[in-house]
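so my prof wants the structure for this chain in the C-alpha cells format not the other one, which i didnt know existed until like an hour ago. anyway here's the sequence
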Amino acid sequence: MTARGNTEANVTSTAPALIEQGRAKVNLTLRVVGRRVDGYHDLESVVAFADCADRLTLTPGPELALDMAGPLAQACGETSDNLVLKAARLLGERVPDLKAGHFALDKVLPVAAGIGGGSADAAAALRLLARLNGLSLDDARLREVALKTGADVPVCLASRACDMTGIGESLLPLSLPKMPCVLVNPRVAVATSDVFTALGLRNGELLVGASDVIQSPAWPEDGASIGDWVEALAMGANDLEAPAARIEPVIGEVLSTLGATEGMRLARMSGSGATCFAIFDDDTRAQAAAQKVRLDHPSWWVHAGTLS
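here's what i got, hopefully its the right format
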C-alpha cells in the first residue's frame, strides 16, 4: 500500500464510502499505578466518551491516502505521521490483501488535548477497515494493531465507557448514565511524554501501595444515577493533573473557571491535558455554563453535551 496526503487525491470507486465517528475520549479518573521496568506506565482509568467527534470517511480504492479538512486540520501536523495511516499500514502487515482506500478526515477535536483525538481517528480507521474487509472487532489482529498504534486506541476502538487498566489493553465495560458535561480546552497543546516526565517515576517504581493495586475500585452498577457516579468519581483523581498544570498553568485557570459555574458537580482534567471537563445535573445548566465560559474566554474551545 502507498500513502498520499495532498488535497488533490481523487479516488474513483464504485463502492460506496463508509463513515465512522471518532468520539472524544474523557478520562473521568486516571490513577498512575506505577512505571514498569520497560518504561511504560500502568494506569487505571474510568473512561467515558463525549458526543463531539471527528468524522472519518473511507472511499474504497487501490491507493492508501488521507486528506484532512475541518477547523483544526492544520494542527494535525504532517499527514504521513497521522495515526490513521499508521493503523492502516500496521493492519495491512497482518491481514493479507487488505482492502483500503482513500480516507478523508474532518477534524474538529483539539490536538494533543488529553481527549484522544488522534487515537479516536485511528480507531475509526480500524473500524472502517474492519467493515470493508469483513473483520470482527474482536479479531486479535485488530486488537494488536490498536495497541501498537497507541495506548488509547484500544479503548477508542470499543468507544464505550469502561474501566481501563494496564497500558490500555485491559477494558472492563461500565454502564454510565448520560451525564451532561462541558469540555474546555484553552487551545494549548500538551505533550503526553512531557507530563509523564514531569511525574518523575523511575523504571520499576510504584506510585501506589501494593494493597491499593490489589483492591480495584468498585464502580456503581447498572441503573446508577448521575449523583451516584459523581460521588464515586469524586473519590478518585487524575494523577497527571498536577504535573500537567506545572507545565501549562492555564490548566488551573480552566479548572477554576469550570469550578465556578452554577450547577457544577465535578470538574477535572482529562488524560494528560489540557482539556478539562465538568459534570452537571442537567443539560440546561451545562449549556448555560458553556455559554458563560465562551463569553469570558472567547479563544478557548468549548463543547457542551453529554458523556456516556
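also thought this was worth mentioning. The chain has a mean pLDDT of 92.
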